[in-house]
Write a structure and sequence with these properties.
The protein has about 80 residues and is mainly alpha-helical. It has helices spanning about 5-15, 20-35, 45-60, 70-75, and strands spanning about 35-40, 45. A hairpin with a 5-residue loop joins strand 1 (about 35-40) and strand 2 (about 45).
Amino acid sequence: MSLESIKIDIAKQLFNIDKMTVLEQIKRILEKETVVAYTTSGEPLTKEAYIAKVKAAEADIEQGNYTTHEQLLKDIEKW
């Protein structure tokens, strides 16, 4: 089965669902897998992965692992 035919099949099934709880569960699953951002190298990130990256960046900042604007300007001069 091709990707397009699977999408069509799922869409048809969605239209036949009449229980709100089932639709809410499907929505939660889809929201978990939705790409909300990309890394600088183009890697797609889900909401959970994005939050994890932000928390890791915050931890780096708290530990002093960052480059200030002034440091960056000095480094650029050396290029």
